[in-house]
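Margin note from the TA: students keep mixing up input and output lines. Inputs are the sequences; the output is the structure of the whole complex. Example:
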Amino acid sequence: MDLSFSKEDLAFQDEVREFLATSLPTDVKDRCDRGLHPTKEGQIRWQKILNEKGWMAPNWPKEYGGTGWTISQKYIAAHEFGQASAPIALPFGISMVGPVIYTFGNPEQKAKYLPRILNSDDWWCQGYSEPGSGSDLASLQTKAVRDGDHYVVNGQKIWTSFAHLADMIFCLVRTDSSAKQQEGISFLLIDMKTPGITVKPIYGIDKENTLNEVFFEDVRVPIENRIGEENKGWTYAKFLLGNERTGIARVARSKRQIVRLREIAAAERSGGKPLTEDQDFINKLTRLEIDLMALEYTELRYLSMIAKGKKLTAEPSLLKIKGTEIQQRLTELLVESLGMYGAPYEPERAYEGRNETPVGPDYANGPMAEHLYLRAATIYGGSNEIQRNIVSKMVLGL
Amino acid sequence: MDLSFSKEDLAFQDEVREFLATSLPTDVKDRCDRGLHPTKEGQIRWQKILNEKGWMAPNWPKEYGGTGWTISQKYIAAHEFGQASAPIALPFGISMVGPVIYTFGNPEQKAKYLPRILNSDDWWCQGYSEPGSGSDLASLQTKAVRDGDHYVVNGQKIWTSFAHLADMIFCLVRTDSSAKQQEGISFLLIDMKTPGITVKPIYGIDKENTLNEVFFEDVRVPIENRIGEENKGWTYAKFLLGNERTGIARVARSKRQIVRLREIAAAERSGGKPLTEDQDFINKLTRLEIDLMALEYTELRYLSMIAKGKKLTAEPSLLKIKGTEIQQRLTELLVESLGMYGAPYEPERAYEGRNETPVGPDYANGPMAEHLYLRAATIYGGSNEIQRNIVSKMVLGL
Amino acid sequence: MDFELSDEQNLLKDSFERFVKDNYSSDARAKLANTELGFSRGHWKKMAELGWLGLPFSEDVGGFGGTAVETMIMMESMGRGLVLEPFVSTVILGGGLIAEAGSPAQIEAIIPEVIEGNMMLAFAYAEPQSRFNLNDVETAASKSGSGYVLNGHKSVVYHGTTADKVVVSARTSGNSRDEAGISLFIVDNNVSGLSRRDYRTIDGQRAADIMFENVAVGADALLGKEGTAYPVIEKVTDYAIAALCAEAVGAMQAANEITNEYMKQRKQFGTPIGKFQVLQHRMVDMYMEAEQSKSMSDMVAMKLDLGDEMERRKAVAAAKAQVGQASKFVGQQSIQLHGGMGMTDEYSIGHYFKRLTTIEMLFGNTDYHFKRFAALSS
Amino acid sequence: MDFELSDEQNLLKDSFERFVKDNYSSDARAKLANTELGFSRGHWKKMAELGWLGLPFSEDVGGFGGTAVETMIMMESMGRGLVLEPFVSTVILGGGLIAEAGSPAQIEAIIPEVIEGNMMLAFAYAEPQSRFNLNDVETAASKSGSGYVLNGHKSVVYHGTTADKVVVSARTSGNSRDEAGISLFIVDNNVSGLSRRDYRTIDGQRAADIMFENVAVGADALLGKEGTAYPVIEKVTDYAIAALCAEAVGAMQAANEITNEYMKQRKQFGTPIGKFQVLQHRMVDMYMEAEQSKSMSDMVAMKLDLGDEMERRKAVAAAKAQVGQASKFVGQQSIQLHGGMGMTDEYSIGHYFKRLTTIEMLFGNTDYHFKRFAALSS
């Protein structure tokens, strides 16, 4: 048991700081800092810089382009990226479908897709949820029927983040309707430009278009786009969900938000004094900070177990639950710190086209947008209620 | 809608204050103030004083000895009793079995038991729970078999508060084992001196004997001791549970505890200053106080609805849930206010016999005992989980 | 002591509810919120015709002589429909300040116009540095001839976008946070030197930051005696807070009903999600919060009608703190229980969430009123 | 960065667990807690023989040279069994203060005796007015000849009942709450002028209030340099807090296992109560609190071993606050999930609840350490 960093670790830390200081574009950093969604162009520009540096995929095996970092290095990189407000790579390619492809894909699929993911040539989205299947994912209805060397896909996906920007979608589809729910599912990679695909925007409570519905009408998908075996898609989907839960804690990001919250509170006034001198505010901030610290060390402890070859069961669900609860408390407190300037809200669609400066202090532009958007954090990726069901069953045996 | 008091109300308030100032015995008041269980002798002495004044049964119909008070008068009396640390009458006779007797009993039963309850001649206890049936009350197993003009009772009750002090027990027993769970139950009144009854003490986490097990071995109970019809006991039991839930909120008592907490906090020091100047402490106290105020007005609102002839469903469950949660937070904060003097704990058995003064400040004798005992408040009378089930079903239709 | 409505009040309640039912379907409300104006002048006219805009004014200024209880009844209905018309800004705040502190001439010139629906008002009190402190006023009004010149920046003036006249708090003497030295002025919303930055708020309403640059007003713009406005402001905002508490109660009740219904309809794992115990208990907690809030809202309305100042302050602080907490919980959990559906702008529940979020913040958030209550209790 | 135990540490852990398994069944523990002494001298001897009483002392004073990580491992096991022997009072606190500040003569006279199990210690620091502030010391030590005379009242001295010697904090100069001017003294527990009021604590342990009335001690009783004890006290109590955090982790894990098992066995409505979703999620929350606490306890042990003072303070404050909150939650909900059974003295779960309740309070409760952390972070 040891928390110390080696000399190599400290040198690595310097390298990360130097890289971020010189390579992170200001506009990208600014949006990230505010909690605004990245622009597609900005995000890709940044990811290509990351890939050039070889740092696009810290969690991939080295043979597929991973960094080969130790736990300490991963911790250092995450911390520094967080503090610098450097956006993490969008998860759909690098954290979700990438690992599925290198774990279950065939050599052709690996060769075709992995480099494009690393270089952000494809913008991926995730076709899991359907109108009737939210938490009950396995009840999905989208059908894929074999027709020669193609599948013909019909059905509908919903809550598809960034589908309107995407080049590719990975999809769960039903290939055997007679089998038990989880047994007739296959995992397909589909080009978004294939005829028969329609994307319909869903405007969120933040008045932004992040989510979408995706309709499939006789969409022909080559059989070679199927990952692994037919009807075994549920196995790959579960693997992916397990991966998703660790990243979702977003500890480094929340640590940066704590710093930002302190900055804002130092600028805000309450009764003539900085808000940072308000004991009730400090009380809430401190509780958040310490909960986050506990989460940080829990994540490190689990990573350490994995590194030692121990097998986790549903422990990552804890990271998802606590991580998202903290994110929500943080954005709530960020909004609260703004006082009355929490109320003005002009969605970006209107904002981008206009000449006026945003109302209120500069830092007021962001927190409410993120607060609204992050209400979904306890819903997506398996709602926190589902995560608790999983822990109850897998860890506690109830 | 009107919160004002009439002239008559104000005169009544004076009368209550005057009565309490002159009639409440100091020793009884002191134990109540500290949150210690009353002694049997003290409690009966006080209840007889109440009965002499005609104030023993504010919620009974006037014809059976009730006070006939208006809502305002009930509110005033409860508030003043609470502020004076006057113990309320033990519920088992006056709030539980009494209403069952005057609602479902026959004329002989009313004539026999009601005056004795009013005059505290019988100390009652409640024989509901059994080892196998806690929250699932209807699964009870204690059997009563007809033998001529008697029932022969065999079985065991548990968690019976004050059974070791009691003269009478009201019991749910199974009189038809072939019927559905809730349909074969009868409601019996049993003299605790009947041969075959054994009371075994259960020492609580507070090291006190409040709870007991009660064993019945061939206990012969005259048939005239049955309330209402045979096998209809569940109806009377449910009626009783409904009654129990309103009293259990203990708003007036908690209001007094808030005052006491303020007194203690004013005497305690933190960093050389009174604890009442500690913002975090005040924050917790204020939240409690306001939650309690909301509960108080909710109780009044429901009482007002009842007075206007409206029918409540499971609303009283809210009073039970919120009331007990507040009681627990209060005793927790009382203990917290004592600092390190929360730790010393000498159960009364030891305490009563000794000459030494209790350790720490005088007010430190009480809070921990009550804190420990009141962990049961969210368990007894139908656990708060069961109450939420009831609200979910009866009010929300889920 | 009586918590029940009179027959007359029940009739009034029916008419409020009919208005909401006829005009505030979820779709109609969404459309209205997206118009430039953000509410309907037609509705406003109708409310005037029904006598509602005169409800809280005393009969000698042409009002209905309603009590705080009647306002509470009205606001609960408005909350259920998320009604957008500027009733609180115009009638409770602007009208309330003028009726409370105005000269006979000021009252006569404005209140009848308000009651008839011809004039809208707004109250500009907050400033960038003031947070929720009504006494933190740096906008300056300096004497100039027989009148005054105003300079300063007022933040987040609800319905400052459409008000004909704005009541402005400004400092005529004293230091930044002194209670003494604050005065009120009635200013035309298009007076020379006044500039506005109009915007939308997250609850679908309209507000403005208003900047005063050497705005000259006459002596007749002064509302009440110079330098003594603070107690008036505190009192009138207390009435506004009570109204918002009632609005929040209506909004919570509606949000709970929508969510409860959704739980019965929405199936997952082959069964309505309302059958899952964890969600049932969550819904019970939401119901209990709304019940507790209803009690506090009733209480505060009745306390206002009793007229005791200290009791009023404590009751308002307690009610706002409790209702604020409840609003957050009910709003957030309504979204959670709806899952993805709750995140969409098209579905109604998110709008309840956002209005409840805003009410929690308006005129002092939960923490502010906990502190206020503690200070009043110590 | 590595959170895993070494092979050696795993062996040590096994031997702690064996001791607890062999000696601390629920019944055995209850019996022991009810004896006059409140623990077992036999166990103490055994712990000495196993070398545990020398675990945290450096090798040059005859100790084992163990790190804070090893103490953490031991205390976690002790927490699982609710072990009653005064390890923290004697070894971590009393022994720690002497090893940290003592002269070679003092160390030589006491530490070997402690390690061999021949001498017990206690630390008297709290006072009736001090609450959790280590610097709030009014017990006075005035110079008298070459020695000192002590006067004052020390509160709730854990194991002050059985200690042979007591380490006492007393003021040699300065005002009540000055950090400067505090000194430590080693006093025989039966010295003339010292009187005790012994009692039981809710966690089944023993403590005493100790009154000093003109207690004369020699110059050799002074521990460290006069007036400079505060940083030593803060450091050593930080080590004690870390130990208590680990103990709490063990107690929480045990309480969770007992409760989890009970939920599988106990049937209501014809099904194990562990099948009810609300109780499942409660249990999940308890599990998560214990997991978070384990991480903080590991973290704080490793931070102590890194030796940075500021980092130590922040880590200890954060860990105690988090563990304190978790202890309350897990303890209280363990009772709740057991229903009536949890309320009985005979069943084990209540004892975990009470020890967890006490740990939350010892050396500063949750609020205290939140504030401490905030002050260190600002």
